# Entry
Amino acid sequence: MASSEGADRLTVLAHELGNILDGSLRCLGLAERSMPGGAEPEAPGSDEARRRLDTVRQALLRMSELVEAAMKHSAGSLTAEISGIQSPIELGEAIFHAVDVLTPLADEHHVRITACVSNGLSGVPAGPLYPVLVNGLRNAIEAICRSVGTGAEETSGVVDVNAGWTEDGRVRISIRDDGVGLPRAATEAIFQFGFSTKPRGSGLGLAVARSIVEELPEGSIRLFNRADRPATDRPGAILELTFRPVARTDAGAA
# Structure
C-alpha cells in the first residue's frame, strides 16, 4: 500500500462490502425459500430460476471469501489467504462457474462463450484463480463489445476458454476472444497497476491477476494478440496463464 491511510480506507471498504454481501445472501435465501416446491407443480421456468439463483449464491459466497481474505491480508501473501478459503473447489468447477456468472453479460451483447476443460484436470484445485478467471472473461467480452458496439442483433463474437496440461506437466488456461486486440504500446504496461486500455478502466484487474498467478508455483500470465487472424480492426487477444499444481488426485496428465 502507498500509505497507512490508504490501507485503512481499504479495510473499511472491505468491512462494509462484507456487510452488504451478508445482507445479500440473506435476501437470496428468502428468495429461494419463496420458490415453488414440495408436491405442488412448479411454474414454467422455475428450474432455470433455481439454477440462476444458485449461480448468484455461489458468486456471492466467492465474493465474501475474497473480502475476508483481503481483510486478513497485510504484509503476507494475498494469494495464500485466498487459497486458504473454507470452500475450495476444483479448477474445472471454478471455470464453469465463472462462465455461468458472465453468461448474462455475454448474452446481453450477443457474445457466445465456449469452455473446454480436460478430463485429466479432475482433482486439480482452483486455489486463488477464481477472480482471475472472472476478470479475464469480463475483459474478453468487453473487448468484443468495443469492436462491434452495443447494438448488435446477432452473435457479435466468441470467447473460448480452454484448460489442459502442458507437455512438461503444468496446467495451461487460455481465454481467447475475437475483439479489438491490444495496441502495441500496451504490451509492456498491460499488467501495471493503474494502466488500462479501456476508456473507463481502473487498471486493477490484470495487475491483481498477475500478482495472484505469479505467486503460484512456476506461475506465469501473458496477454497477447492472436496470430491466427488477419491484421484487421479485430485481431482478438489471448489471456494465457500456466502454473504447476501443488497437489492433484489424477494419475497423470491428459
The first strand starts at residue 111 and ends at 117.
